[in-house]
Amino acid sequence: YVESEKVLCFHGPLIYEAKILKCKRFNKNSPTPNKGPHYFVHYRGWKSTWDEWVHQDRILKWDEKNLAVQRKLMAEHRATTGKDRDDMERKHEREKRPLPAQRMSKEPLPKEVNPPKEAKQSKREPRVKKAVKEEEGYGAELFNWNPPAKRKVEVKLVVPDVLKAFLVDDWEAVTRNGQLVPLPRQPCVDDLLMEFREVIWSMPASSSPSKRDENLSLFLIGIKTYFEQALGTHLLYRFERPQYADVLRRYAYGPDVPAEQVKTNSKLYGAEHLLRLLGKC
Length: 281
Known about the structure:
10 helices, about 280 residues
């Protein structure tokens, strides 16, 4: 392949039209896990931020045979996504249908012309309970009181488009180029949350300062706790897991780590992984 050549290039499960901008052979410091010839390509119709170095295994010649493969993969992808969409719609329809017990509960019950004697006796029971409550004294009216359920407070975080672009670049750097974030990260997540708190405190309060400080502290504690629990299970790509195990062994759970020097996830990781968490909220 040569520069300015029109080619087909794999990106994920599909094939896209691309143009070769640069050619280079990498034996060391390869931008991908593979060594050898690499090509810096631009995908037609995509922004230049998607330009990337790819190994020659991902590039195909521009000919009728490969174009037919491209059309076949695209058709299979559309059929699969369309089938999944139909299955989801049918699932939602089933969930909307009332259950047999729900349908029966909506039907009016027949009125009894002559209620049985047991029903008359049951009406006297509240009088007995009332008499017992009156004897119990103050606070007896709370005998059968059920406290109202607390309303769940939800906080919706809006991630700007600029930060979403950083998430895409982060994904490509790790999964495509095999690049890892150096750890421990500075500033770490703890430092970023504290800096965010200082910025909020410097702004004029829309409500009472004490209420704002209380809500802000609870919010930051929640974000930090969520990050600590979610990092190892939801925020790491497959290539980052060996690094995560090594970092924990050196700074957290290793036999040579003193108890007073143990570092948590929020002390080891930084803005890149915190942004992944915010993108999931």
